Amino acid sequence: MNNGFTHNQARIPAARVTGFALATLLLVCGAFLLTSCGHEPEKATPPVQTETQNTNAASTGANEKAASAEEGNVDKAADEKASQDDSAKAAKHQGAYAIAIRNGGGADGLAGAAQAKLVAAGLTEDNHTYALDSYAIAGGLAPTTVVYVKGTGDDAAEVKEEAEKVVSALGLGSVQTFDEATAGESMDSFDIFVIVGKDALSTLQ
User: What CATH fold (topology level) applies to the domain 98-204?
Assistant: First the structure.
């Protein structure tokens, strides 16, 4: 009995089901491809700093601070040494300069005139003491003005500089190393020994 239903008619629904399944599969694949294409790339994550790196960084910082501190100590030590050197230089000559002025030019008042000229030039009695007297050498008067200084002593160089100021202020004479035999008088009590000679007659009177 056929009931009007053929065998070919029974195959039609099966073909439709297969086509529907293929279409669904294509849609799923397409959706997956679209999703994959639009996916953003992963961002690179920064490297994690290890404990060793932290230790090295801390050690480097400590070394830099130590070097800076050491450099500061060197500069400070140099400044202190310079200050000590300046203090030592200033302390070489203690007290006022003791200056002996001897009139060897044969005219009254030459020693006093020489002192007045020195004071006027700035060698005042605030830091200079003056001892005036006459002076006579064997055979007559002193022809030229001579400023004597001691050749030895911790402050010899400083005293010589002061003697140069004496010569400059008087406008005559020369600085020489003291020789007691030549000068004829001791200068144990003096720093600078000035013999005013005959050449001062025209400038100090």
Answer: Alpha-Beta Plaits (3.30.70)
